């Protein structure tokens, strides 16, 4: 199986999510450069190397690689938009088919747009799409225990806590623990977005 690059724009209110384009590179490059301090402590890197903001050329190459992965069925790359402006990135990676049918969501958003329910809404939209129409059975999100902003996302969406993966990913100069949260197609009922809407209205 493979993910369709013709997926329609997913939206709720002022928040929308669409497949990433190579033409998004310039805007994403600007956001990554201007939000360096905000983002760099959460970025994975190779041991022995320090993370640096990618050049525009590197970012275009990275997007092409993400789109190739989508055609091969191993990923689903999106950008997050608020009022039609690109404000961050969200990807479903490590997609496995066969008897597993699972993928892992990762995301980042510009600091000036955090705390506006953009990320939870985007994650809900993509999770619902991947579990209802994208052929996946399970979505997981792994986050560093000290990343309170990401923890609020999974708590708002009521993902199930599955446990801690010790020294899981090399980030910010060391192997960092991650807490894993997940949801399956049997658990979502009317949808993860509906969970979020109910939580906001309460």
List the helices and strands and how they pair.
Layout: E1 10-12, E2 15-19, H1 25-34, H2 36-39, H3 56-72, E3 76-82, E4 85-96, E5 102-109, H4 118-132, E6 138-143, H5 148-157, E7 160-171, E8 174-184, H6 192-201
Parallel strand pairs: 5-6
Antiparallel strand pairs: 1-2, 2-3, 3-4, 4-5, 6-8, 7-8
Helix pairs in contact: 1-3, 4-5, 4-6
Highlighted features:
single chain, 202 residues, alpha+beta, eight-stranded mixed β-sheet, 6 helices, 32% strand
What's the overall geometry? globular
Biggest beta-sheet profile:
8 strands, mixed
Order of helices and strands: EEHHHEEEHEHEEH
pLDDT average, as an integer?
91
Rg from C-alpha positions?
16 Å
Task: Pick out the low-confidence regions.
Answer: none
Strand content: 25-35%
What distance separates the N and C termini? 39 Å
Give a brief description.
The protein has 202 residues and is an alpha+beta fold.
Walk me through the structure.
- With 202 residues, this protein is α+β, with helices and mostly antiparallel strands.
- The protein is 33% helix and 32% strand.
- It has helices at 25-34, 36-39, 56-72, 118-132, 148-157, 192-201; strands spanning 10-12, 15-19, 76-82, 85-96, 102-109, 138-143, 160-171, 174-184.
- It has an 8-stranded mixed sheet with strand order 1-2-3-4-5-6-8-7, with helices on both faces.
- β4 and β5 (102-109) form a beta hairpin.
- α1 packs across α3 (56-72) and α4 packs antiparallel against α6 (192-201).
- It is globular.
- The mean pLDDT is 91.
């Amino acid at each position: 199986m493979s993910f369709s690059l013709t997926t329609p724009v997913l939206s709720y209110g002022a928040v929308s999510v669409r497949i990433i384009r190579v033409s998004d590179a310039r805007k994403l490059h600007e956001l990554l450069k201007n939000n360096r301090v905000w983002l760099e402590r959460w970025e994975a890197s190779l041991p022995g190397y320090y993370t640096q903001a990618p050049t525009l050329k590197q970012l275009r190459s990275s997007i092409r690689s993400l789109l190739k992965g989508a055609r091969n069925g191993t990923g689903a790359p999106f950008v997050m938009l608020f009022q039609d402006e690109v404000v961050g990135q969200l990807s479903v990676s490590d997609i496995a088919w066969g008897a597993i049918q699972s993928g892992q969501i990762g995301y980042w958003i510009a600091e000036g747009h955090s705390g506006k329910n953009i990320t939870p809404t985007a994650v809900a939209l993509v999770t619902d799409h991947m579990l209802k129409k994208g052929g996946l059975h399970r979505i997981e999100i792994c986050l560093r225990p000290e990343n309170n902003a990401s923890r609020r996302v999974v708590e708002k969406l009521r993902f199930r806590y599955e446990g801690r993966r010790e020294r899981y990913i090399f980030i910010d100069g060391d192997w960092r623990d991650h807490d894993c949260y997940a949801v399956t197609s049997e658990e979502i009922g009317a949808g993860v977005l509906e969970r979020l809407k109910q939580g906001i209205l309460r």
